[in-house]
Design a protein that fits this description.
mainly alpha, Leucine-rich Repeat Variant
């Protein structure tokens, strides 16, 4: 009986904590609106970035479903700072929508996530006929590939320095 009560206590406590976190995240997302002073928007963005992976399920949902394009663009920007590969699928899906600036933000975020996004960018290329978006996708691929090349050359040069010692 004691174990049952203790387990129930932990479940209730965990549920309350999760509800508080989700409420906080949704309140922060509301602060991303263009009608909110820029300082409050910046605070909300920084707080969501610092929450990292804990905020991702909520950010992904709002990126897909929020009615305000401005908020969705801000969420894409936040995801670009969190840089978690679990965002790739959602970003790719949203990047094929009717709003160019949102599509652009999603593609740029895919570039920030890095090499894991290359396949997604290739799929986006095959899905779009919008020439401006195609240019942004190409630029994103170049950025990822050049970052990879720079990382490899830095890695090789530090290996050579270590061998000389």
């Amino acid at each position: 009986m004691k174990r049952y009560i203790l387990a129930l206590f932990f479940i209730i406590t965990s549920t309350i904590a999760q509800t508080e976190i989700s409420t906080e995240i949704y309140n922060l997302i509301k602060q991303l609106d263009s009608t909110v002073p820029i300082t409050e928007q910046s605070f909300a963005k920084n707080k969501l970035i610092s929450m990292g992976k804990d905020a991702l399920p909520y950010l992904h949902k709002e990126l897909q479903e929020n009615k305000k394009t401005y908020i969705r663009i801000q969420i894409a920007w936040i995801l670009g700072h969190i840089k978690d590969p679990s965002s790739i699928k959602v970003l790719e899906e949203v990047a094929t929508g009717p709003y160019f600036n949102l599509n652009k933000a999603c593609v740029m975020t895919l570039a920030e996530i890095g090499e894991e996004s290359l396949i997604s960018l290739e799929r986006l290329k095959s899905k779009t006929t919008e020439t401006n978006l195609l240019k942004i996708i190409n630029d994103a691929e170049i950025k990822i590939k050049s970052t990879k090349t720079n990382t490899l050359s830095l890695s090789n040069s530090s290996t050579k320095k270590n061998k000389r010692k």
